[in-house]
Design goal:
It contains 2 helices and 21 strands. By secondary structure, the protein is mainly beta. The protein has one domain (about 5-300): Beta-galactosidase, Chain A, domain 5. The strands form 3 sheets. It has a 10-stranded antiparallel β-sheet, with no helix packed on it.
């Protein structure tokens, strides 16, 4: 059975814990909308927590905080970083909980996160909505970012590989940023997978993006694996950032796994929705990080 209870989470008294006894999730109502915790019940938090920002509200500028959030793309130093430091409206309807933020002065949008946890197992459906609350159309894409705790490794799978000359058409972009350094030792690119390790001793930011019709990203942390999935539309050119449905970023404090929706024109009052599906898995060990090992251990879970 799903249990939803109001708690004080790290100094935020209006937070809500959702658990089915196997996994637990915390959605705060004091800022956001943000999911600040996800993991096995009584276990580690997969998500990053910035300790000096826990319990804080009302800051004039955007705060990293950690956790899981929804933004708008393409990235803009003003609009993407609109502060989410005010209370949000929490609604509980049976086993479903949602958090709706106020209309952002900088963007004219309101953001909403809805959580539907499976009654058994570790599955969670997370629905993200962006609503145009002003009187003119807005061109944007939903962008969903999860900040993970330090010391783990992010994993992303490419679309199915093929052979030449049988498969002549390209399958996906691999997108670089100006600060992307492929000789950084935190990267591992193989035939089927992209791996990025989080290193708290390395302050150099790194980022890559890609497209996969069946987009997924995973994070391995202390023998436990978080997986997020998103079903992309069939046209890669519909996506921002030169066709990315997936992006991953790291610095010394975090590693992010990000999924993006297609660019859309939102009429006044209209909304766009973006759904991720999460699972968690225990007892996961990787030693060689080869395609063969990832095929055997990670691929069956995706």
């Amino acid at each position: 059975m799903i249990k939803i209870e109001k708690i004080n989470f790290k100094g935020w008294p209006n937070s809500w814990r959702v658990s089915n006894g196997e996994v637990a999730l915390v959605l705060t109502g004091d800022v956001g909308p943000r999911i600040m915790h996800f993991g096995f019940a009584g276990g580690q938090n997969f998500f990053k927590e910035f300790a000096d920002q826990m319990g804080q509200t009302g800051e004039p500028e955007w705060q990293p905080r950690g956790g899981h959030r929804v933004w708008i793309a393409p990235e803009d130093i003003v609009k993407s970083y609109a502060p989410d430091n005010d209370p949000v409206d929490i609604q509980v309807n049976g086993d479903v909980i949602s958090a709706t933020g106020p209309v952002e002065a900088l963007t004219g949008v309101s953001k909403k996160i809805t959580v539907k946890m499976a009654a058994t197992g570790t599955g969670v459906e997370v629905i993200h909505e962006v609503r145009n609350a002003i009187g003119v159309p807005l061109v944007l894409a939903p962008w969903v970012l999860t900040m993970f705790a330090t010391g783990g490794a992010g994993i992303h799978g490419f679309p199915p590989r093929g052979t030449h000359p049988e498969d002549l058409a390209p399958t996906n972009p691999l997108v670089m940023w100006a600060f992307t350094h492929l000789d950084d030792r935190r990267w591992r690119l193989s035939r089927k997978y992209l791996v990025l390790r989080q290193d708290p001793d390395n302050a150099n930011p790194q980022k890559l993006g890609s497209y996969n019709r069946h987009t997924w990203g995973a994070y391995l942390l202390n023998g436990e694996l978080f997986i997020k999935r998103y079903e992309a539309v069939a046209d890669p050119t519909a996506y921002p950032d030169l066709g990315c449905s997936f992006e991953t970023f790291t610095n010394q404090a975090i590693l992010e796994l990000e999924t993006l929706g297609p660019i859309t024109t939102l009429a006044p009052g209209a909304s766009v929705s973006h759904t991720e599906r999460w699972t968690a898995h225990r007892g996961i060990t990787l030693q060689t990080w080869t395609d063969e090992e990832l095929d055997a251990i990670i691929a069956p879970l995706v």
